[in-house]
Amino acid sequence: MNARIMNELVDSFWKLLLPGIRVTIPLTFLSFSIGLCIALAVALVQVANIQVLKQAARFYVWIIRGTPMIVQLFVVYFGLPSIGLTLPAFPCAVIVFSLSVGAYCSETVRAAIESVPSGQLEAGYCVGMTFTQTMRHVIIPQALTTAFPPLSNSLIGLVKDTSLAYSVAIVEILATAQRIAARTYDYFWLYCEAGLIYLIFCTFLTWLQRKLEKRLERKR
Length: 220
Prior knowledge:
Largest sheet: none
Helix content: over 70%
Oligomer: single chain
Number of domains: 1
Order of helices and strands: HHHHHHHH
Shape: flat
CATH architecture: Orthogonal Bundle
CATH class: Mainly Alpha
Distance between the termini: 51 Å
């Protein structure tokens, strides 16, 4: 690696890092927060065993898990305008990523809820609690503790999946790397540098996950 490439990489590092902080991180946490709410709702619908809603939830999970995320992005960003509904790129990405998180994490949350002994739900009924109250105060706090590690892995995976947002004109890390590479022709080093920034973000989240897991274990 010669001095010219080294200087360009040092200069481009900050140009790649800033979109990561301004776009990738907000897109990740906003989508994951909305997706987690969807996942919890879908899991509760299935646990409550309301047949119509349960079948609708399963259909939603089947569609989202069975189609590529990039196709979903294209349908929302490029397809919806053809039927008269046009959305900016960032909300389109949030919608698609949230739906994806909701579908995948709903199975994690559902399994965690079902891992809590059924006697605790019955005990809630015995003291006069409704299904909603028992879930809110007794079952879900225990289930989320169990589901924390796989949910954290989903969050880390979402950080990397946000790189697909460049396909709908969102200027995040990968899109910025492509623009710089088109000017300098240093594709190899710039893509490696973009990968390094994703690695830094994911490493920090992995470290944070381990810290929180230890705290949860102490509380448990």
